[in-house]
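U., I forgot to send this yesterday:
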Amino acid sequence: MRVIGKGMVAAMLALLATGCSSTTATRKQASLASSQVVQLVNQIVQSAVVALGNLQPVGGTVASGFVAPRAMRGPVTFQVSTAFSCEQGGEIQVSGTVAGNVDDATGTGTLTVDATETLASCHRTIEGTEMIVDGALQLTGNFVVLSGTPATSQSAALEGELAISAAPSGSGACSINLSFSYSTETAVATVTGTACGYPIVL
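Result:
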């Protein structure tokens, strides 16, 4: 049987400790003010709302401004695919599907939103803090159809974690858990939930 010396044990413990501290560091909360987080949330939510207003029927043309090119009936699938440029570089990409069944007679149905909002090196400055944001958020919800057209009021949710590199406040993680309702006429959203450790009510 091989005996492990005290020196080797100490080295192994040091290595384990280093690994644990490294994991903890990558999950450190981003140091942002609540007002900065509100602006970040507004950008994220508005990107989702605009993307859901530019649905692309599979095999068809863009349904711009929440208006389908024809009255929706039967099984329908729309593609969500919209990209937004960030102020100082990088982008936000929203992609996925909105799919379900609409009653042939009444034109009424509830479609399922299954999409992802990805921030790729999204570079911007908020209140003097320069930041680069990366990460993917799950965009889910129900998309209601009435009389073959989208209902005026819709709801959805965003959930996931972002990695924020910010100067001079430092880098860290930002957990997102938001629910929002929005108007298909004005694209104005009402938001509740949490972001970067702050309660959000907008």
